[in-house]
Specification:
The complex is a heterodimer.
Chain A: H1 2-19, H2 21-41, H3 44-47, H4 56-62, H5 69-86, H6 89-99, H7 101-106, H8 112-141, H9 158-185, H10 189-205, H11 218-225, H12 228-240, H13 250-276
Helix pairs in contact in A: 1-8, 2-5, 5-8, 5-9, 5-12, 6-9, 8-9, 9-12, 9-13, 12-13
Chain B: E1 3-13, E2 19-29, E3 33-37, H1 44-51, E4 59-64, E5 67-68, H2 73-79, E6 80-83, H3 95-105, H4 110-123, H5 139-151, E7 157-161, H6 169-186, E8 189-194, H7 197-203, E9 206-211, E10 214-219, H8 221-227, E11 231-237, H9 245-249, E12 254-260, E13 263-268, H10 271-284, E14 289-295, H11 299-307, H12 319-333
Parallel strand pairs in B: 3-8, 3-9, 6-7, 7-8
Antiparallel strand pairs in B: 1-2, 1-4, 4-5, 9-10, 11-13, 11-14, 12-13
Classes of the chains: A mainly alpha, B alpha/beta.
Chain lengths: ~280, ~325
């Protein structure tokens, strides 16, 4: 019965999501712009061109195993999707609290855990689909003339695909948890968007989604190491590109990410339970 | 007969210091329709929230179906149904999907759910709309859907918090018809809050009037009306020259006779028997009667009597305003 209520709540969230194309488009629009415009223009690889085309080895060294900048960058965008897809979940929660949808679940004889869990799991499933879209698009770009695209030059195994999916799931889970927690704490959508705007870009810029950690100043490298987007993107890049450019194996970053997601999960569950209990 | 709801000295003081419910005590018998009446801000919704485990009392005790709402909220939740003031059906889901999710949340088995949803959709006249998204529903349809969701798991006590708010008179009458039917068929205890006195008068076996967090009067609608002095019969003779006061004062049941504007105002008990008797007394005295009217006191007057204020909505933001704001809010969200 517990699982049935949880499934019912996940189903509710996903049905609502599928039925609002604007929501899907808005969480895709940022990564798309970065992919189709920003990534095409800011092609760090071209800077290596000054004295003629760089050797493949030089490019790999610059982009940590990736054959070119865009390949490196587009995988970062797959990780970035986890962030953009979860950005609005807290706002959705605030609206739902105001409109009474949350009350309906609070008054139902179900564990408080499933009210939070339903939103959390549904929130983590979404970026899998969106990340797939971004990844697929980047692959297609490689075959469109006039566009840079994603080239996979590593030995991708089934296990590697599994690791990539789990990494995306974990990073989505932690962001969903964070933004849901903010949604549980706040009552007004205005202050929510204020906080989101403060968090959004720093989370992107302090990650290695757009540029290699190796070119960052030391302090930023340290910050970046603890950014969950970096951890997830490391797992993806190590599996997709030429090996040997990272200090640790992909599994190490995956473990780090799992620990991180677990911690955030516990923390936000405590916050959510406070928000859901009768006052 | 046992009590479905028992409330003893219930108190709720909000963190800001507002005492919304201030030592309220009452009991609702099993199978009864109990009306909780009061102006906006009187403490009706807070009381319902306390009884339905949405809020924690700061004092006193409340039992629902014999279960303490603080000690065992989970069991209370299983035994109650709740229709909120605001629409809580999900706009982006169909009516049927909303009911299916409700069934899952309340642990109604799949096979039972299928059958009950079919029956309820039919009874609430939502069969054709069942596959449509709720955002296309009218206000009345939404309320019917909420009512269906509220009784899907066959609750012992059904709480209705201002269920007819924002509905037109026809929609209100219709909704009450459904509630009456549910009551007749299942014997569910009904606890309803409203600020429409006429509705409470028609539907409820007993009512309690709450004002500033305190119960100011309780009883059957008839008892309350009796308390404020019964009925008023107004009689106007065709010829106003003779003084009829002694004649009318002798009519059984008449308590007081006042002369007013060429007619007479009789305060009396059981006005319907006074009317023919008064007309007959005039006839015996050879006085022709131009008109006679009976006025039963309404709960509005009861409210006035017990609170010293007219029952109006001019205190604080009205619930109707809130409902309207919510609708605008909902549209903006889309």
């Amino acid at each position: 019965m517990t699982y049935r209520s949880l499934f019912a709540l996940i189903r509710r969230e996903l049905l609502i999501w599928v039925r609002s194309p604007t929501g899907i488009i808005s969480s895709l629009i940022f990564p798309m712009m970065y992919l189709a415009l920003f990534g095409q223009a800011l092609n760090l690889g071209k800077l290596l061109n000054v004295a003629g085309p760089p050797s493949a080895a030089l490019a790999r060294a610059a982009f940590l195993g990736a054959p070119d900048y865009f390949s490196y960058f587009s995988v970062g965008m797959v990780g970035f999707v986890a962030l953009t897809a979860s950005l609005f979940l807290g706002a959705q929660l605030i609206f739902d609290k105001r409109l009474g949808y949350v009350k309906r679940t609070i008054v139902a004889p179900i564990p408080r855990m499933s009210i939070f869990g339903g939103r959390l799991i549904a929130g983590a499933i979404r970026p899998l689909f969106l990340g797939g879209v971004v990844f697929g698009l980047a692959l297609i770009f490689a075959h469109v003339s006039g566009l840079s695209g994603l080239t996979v030059n590593g030995h991708l195994t089934i296990l590697g695909v599994g690791e990539i999916i789990v990494a995306l799931l974990l990073v989505s889970l932690s962001f969903t948890a964070i933004f849901l927690a903010v949604g549980f704490l706040l009552e007004s959508p205005q202050s929510y968007f204020g906080i989101v705007n403060i968090l959004n870009l720093p989370l992107l810029f302090t990650s290695n989604a757009m540029y290699p950690q190796t070119i960052m100043p030391g302090w930023l490298q340290t910050v970046s190491m603890y950014n969950p987007v970096s951890m997830a993107v490391n797992v993806m890049r190590e599996n997709l590109f030429a090996p040997g450019f990272y200090p640790h194996p992909a599994e190490f970053y995956l473990g780090e990410l799992a620990l991180y997601a677990f911690g955030i999960g516990i923390l936000t569950f405590i916050i959510a339970r406070r928000g859901l209990s009768a006052r | 007969m046992s009590d479905a709801v028992v409330v003893e000295q219930l108190e709720k003081t909000f963190p800001g210091g507002v005492r919304a419910v201030d030592g309220v005590s009452f009991a609702v018998r099993e199978g009864e329709a109990f009306g909780f009446l009061g102006p906006n801000g009187a403490g009706k919704t807070t009381t319902v929230s306390l009884l339905t485990t949405l809020l924690r009392p700061t004092g006193g005790r409340a039992l629902v179906d014999g279960i303490d709402v603080v000690a065992d909220p989970g069991t209370v939740r299983r035994r109650i149904g709740l229709v909120f003031q605001e629409s809580t059906a999900e706009d982006e889901l169909t009516g049927r999907e909303n009911l299916e999710i409700s069934a899952a949340l309340y642990g109604v088995s799949r096979s039972d759910a299928q059958k009950r949803i079919r029956d309820l959709l039919e009874r609430m006249q939502l069969v054709e709309a069942a596959g449509r998204l709720v955002k296309t529903y009218s206000g009345g349809m939404r309320r019917r859907l909420e009512l269906a969701a509220g009784i899907l798991h066959r609750p012992k006590v059904l709480f209705l918090d201002e269920p007819t708010l924002g509905l037109d008179p026809q929609g209100r009458a219709g909704l009450w018809e459904y509630v009456r039917e549910i009551r007749k068929e299942s014997g569910t205890t009904i606890f309803v809050t409203t600020h429409y006195l006429d509705e409470a008068d028609q539907l409820c076996d007993r009512v309690a009037i709450i004002d500033h967090g305190k119960i100011v009067a309780a009883g059957t609608p008839a008892e309350l009306k009796e308390k404020i002095g019964g009925d008023v019969v107004t009689l106007v003779p065709t010829d106003g020259t003779a003084d009829l006061t002694p004649v009318l004062a002798r009519v059984p049941g008449v308590l007081q006779v006042q002369k007013q504007d060429g007619g007479y105002r009789l305060k009396c008990l059981r006005g319907e028997s006074v009317v023919p008797a008064a007309v007959e007394a005039c006839f015996t005295a050879h006085i022709a009667v131009a008109s006679v009217a009976l006025k039963k006191p309404s709960l509005d007057e009861v409210f006035l009597e017990f609170t010293g204020r007219a029952f109006r909505e001019d205190e604080g933001p009205s619930a109707t305003d809130t409902a309207l704001r919510m609708n605008q809010f909902r549209q903006r969200k889309r």
